[in-house]
Amino acid sequence: MFILYLLVFIFGTIIGSFLNVVIYRLPRNESLVYPPSHCTKCKNELKPYDLVPILSYMILKGRCRYCGDKISIRYPIVELITGLIYLILFIYFGISIKSLSYAFLASLLIVITFIDIEHKIIPNKIILTGLIAGAIFRVLMFNYGVWDYIVGFFLGGGVLLLISLLSGGGMGGGDIKLMALIGLFIGWKLTISTLFIAVLLGAVGGIILIVLKIKTRKDYIPFGPYISAACIISILYGYDLLNLYIKLIRG
Ligand SMILES: [Zn+2]
Fold first, then answer.
1. Where is the Prepilin peptidase A24 N-terminal domain (predicted)?
2. Which has the closest alpha carbon to 128: 53, 181, 192, 67?
């Protein structure tokens, strides 16, 4: 079993390595496949042994083999997070079309999180990719029903759209589209759980960032990372949290 866990983790880190390429190139409108991976400073093409997820970064102590330029810590972090999330999804859902759909969604969320932190945008290309994939997964997973997910789509997008209208544009259009996309993947119940947790994380995270003086009250704080984290938590614990909540309000 351990070997299987290790293989799933390694597979996740390899996907993470590709997500790093997407995170860097997509906002810069560069091709995802050409040219091959290279140092962004000295342009030297990276050899396979420079591209081993996590390990290459550690062995090279975070510097380019050719010019010594610092490599962003984001690379090993994204690889590690992707590996861990794939492993956890495998432990929870086994190898199934469901875990595959969650792994796909998680990969999109990782890309969105890191692009949103750096560029403060959620690219439409990613949302569109997600919507198409989500629709295909819904067809493949027809035995799970369809209405839960259609309701999730409109509920997720609708609630944030409403908040945006009421707050006079405090919520970005990207966040609204992202939440609709999530609803399509996880259904309306987990969408409610995601919304609650995202608001909670956003409030706590916002206060911490302001107290630590990383951001001021006037700064734009991207909400995409909070929605993404809340979605992953909901996939794993959403039903437990909803049941706990129902128990609490019933006394
Ligand atoms: Zn270099």
1. 10-93
2. 181
pLDDT at 251 over 80: no
Q: Output the pLDDT for position 170.
A: 67
> Cβ distance 247 to 194 under 8 Å?
no
Q: For the chain, first and last CA: distance in Å?
A: 42
How far does the centroid of ligand 1 lie from the alpha carbon of residue 49, in Å?
Answer: 15
- Residue 43 Cα to ligand 1 midpoint, Å, equals 6
pLDDT digits (tens, 9 = 90+) for 82-103: 999 999 999 999 999 999 999 9
Calculate how far, in angstroms, residue 61's C-alpha sits from the geometric centre of ligand 1. 13
Phi, psi of 70 (to 5 degrees): -65, 135
3-state secondary structure 95-152: CCHHHHHHHHHHHHHHHHHHHHHHHCCCCHHHHHHHHHHHHHHHHHCHHHCCHHHHHH
